Amino acid sequence: MAVAGLVAAGAGAVVACQPGGLGSATVAYTTDRTATAALEHRHVNVDWLSCTGHQGDDGTHGTSPAPSESTVVSVDCQGQTDDGRKIVVTGLVTKAVDGACVRGDLTAKVGGRQVFRVAGLGNCSAKPGPTYRAPTGGQPEPDVTVTVTVTRTVWPVQGK
To answer: Domain of life of the organism in this record (predicted)?
Structure first.
């Protein structure tokens, strides 16, 4: 869980650097959240789901588009249900509101059976939420290793 939190927090940092553009990190994070909610709404008990986004086919993966560009991000999610069935969510996203919605063409399959094919997930009228919410609803606890360096000066001892 700590790793997922760090990945989500990292996605938020990437999103902040892409004003006006549709970033692959935003799409991956938001598709993960909204697809999980949509699957659970359809009574699919999601154990885990992990999404990746890829921008365009022009070799500019990871770069920010100019604000005037029309961007399409392909998204690929892999996961598993509580009872061990494979979850696959794929599609093309043309709009994302961080953590709230994605629009485009998305298909979800569970155990090889199509569960939904939609033009969008979530509520695009909603205010964007924080990029990471602690699972318990409380504040996230930092999971950081702190190294302290102590410098000691040893003065020469008389007679040595």
So the answer is: Bacteria
Neighbour tally for 92: CB within 10 Å? 13
* Chain Cα centroid distance, residue 41: 20
Please identify which residue in the block is written with the tokens 């560009």.
Answer: 69
| Residue 18 in tokens | 């892409």
Neighbour count for residue 35 (Cβ, 10 Å):
27
pTM comes to 0.61
Is residue 24 a contact partner of residue 53, using CB atoms and an 8 Å limit? yes
pLDDT in tens, 97-154: 878 899 999 999 999 999 999 999 998 887 665 544 444 444 444 444 455 555 566 6
Instruction: Retrieve residue 61's tokens.
Output: 């993966």
What is d(CA 79, CA 48) in angstroms, rounded to the nearest whole number?
5
* d(C-alpha 61, C-alpha 1), whole Å: 27
